Amino acid sequence: MKNGFSFRWIALFVMVLLVALVMGCDDDEKKTNTADTQVTEDAADLAVDVTAEIDDDVLPDTPADVLPDTPADVLPDTPADVLLDTPEDLSDTPQDCTPACQAHYLCVSGACQLDPAFDHATLTELAGPFESGPAVTAACIGCHDSQANDFLMTAHWNWVGPTPGVAGHETGSDLGKANTINSFCVSIAANEGRCTQCHAGYGWANKNFDFTNKGNIDCLVCHDGSGQYKKAPTTAGLPDPAVDLVAAAQSVAPPTRANCGTCHFFAGGGDNVKQGDLYTALLTPDENTDVHMGRLGFQCTECHKSNNHKITGSGLPSAVEEGPRVKCTDCHAAPVHNNTNLDSHTAHVACQTCHIPAFSRQAATKMDWRWEAAGDATRTPVNDANGKPDYDKMKGEFIWAKNVRPTYAWYDGTSTRMQLGDVYTTTPVDMGSPKGDITNLDARITPFKFFTGNQPADTVNNVVLPPHLFGMGAGPNPYWVAYDWALALQEGANYAGIPYSGTFGFVDTSMYLSINHEVAPKAQALGCSDCHNGGIDFTTLGYTGDPMTVGGR
Hints:
Blueprint: H1 2-36, H2 38-41, H3 47-51, H4 63-66, H5 79-84, E1 105-108, E2 111-114, H6 133-143, H7 145-151, H8 155-158, H9 192-195, H10 220-223, H11 245-250, H12 257-264, H13 291-294, E3 306-307, E4 310-311, H14 340-345, H15 351-355, E5 365-370, E6 391-392, E7 396-401, E8 407-411, E9 415-417, E10 429-434, E11 444-458, E12 463-464, H16 479-482, H17 485-496, E13 504-514, H18 528-531, H19 547-550
Parallel strand pairs: 5-11, 10-13
Antiparallel strand pairs: 1-2, 3-4, 5-7, 6-7, 8-11, 9-10, 11-12, 11-13
Helix pairs in contact: 6-7
């Protein structure tokens, strides 16, 4: 009886102990779930949430956090991480900006960035009315004076800048759009009032423009978010009278493809005339037009980042470099293909060569321009298969093409570039071309648009001449009024300060233009047979034959 009594008490004690343990474990599980739900607030991510999320972490995380977590999410935030995560995620790591950020800015990874939640429409300074573009600029400078001072030092303002990759100009910073000569509208000199429709400023109508006057910066051409801002074509960059300046000023935001495309899509005088891989199809592209912009939604600034308004990116024909060059490997760390054979090609072939199988895939681009044919009032333009005219009295004769296979050339990152007054020694005249050859191990086979045509030149001094085409700033006889080449060339040469013999003719010219956009989905990348076994004439690149047969360099 005594032993039975003891056993019952022992059994009861064990049962009570087991119940306590179970209740304790349940409390711990509740604590674990409570801690894990803090991920939904994204105020302070847990280390366990980064390394291996537990099954119970199915509560609605923020969109950024629901993606695979990385150590970067708890270490110092990258700018993209701050913009995607909730504002509370800014507290992940201490932020330190010196000097302290001004109102409406956030300190992000040690740099001040405009608070994406700030609404400029709330500012009384932008209530208007504004009677001119410079009046808007004055209001902007009231808060952004240092940014305006920075902008005065940029290539988008001066149209010249550092050119470490241009042969003969490696240490200079005085070469650029303002004083080079090209195969399209030829030269800005003598034609500023028309060309500066694409200047990020107001009033550059002649050589007397004041580049120290920040009051003439056009803030809206890059930062308008209303979608209705545009410049009047023949006013040296002034806003179109139809623009609602108050709406534009109150809508300012980081630049979009639409802002950049206002100028870059229409370079050379029309949509996709010049570059070949920059045109209005990139405003709302699908992934087959450009995988980065169409599938991932990239804006231009995703790759072309800025520092004090100096923007990264270079290449023919611009060649100005204000910061580090944009490289595919900035995002795609090598080796990228998980294929030894393909990865071995990256030592010899640029990424763009395979991944941009053709350019101008959605709309035709100009491939040849003959100025010599201009001025014929009796000729009727005829549209080609792409709906593009073969002739314009003002500009001459054209050849257009769509879905163009690039021209391939060795490119080591340096180039030639013709400046106003340069003497040519051979024809066709090289207006700008990549440098590099098969023996240069820094060079890669790179895709280009190869543009041809003819242009007026002093055939005694062997200098391609800048014609006076537009306006009366260089004299009373612009070509587009008088249609007299002799008068237009004399006035253009005088304006640009170029000695002119008085004898002119038309010389054949050529220019290479970099192809970097319209990256196709990887399924559309070039395959072996697209290049080998007759796909490319490798002898033009310096090989003795197809490298698959004769061996590489």
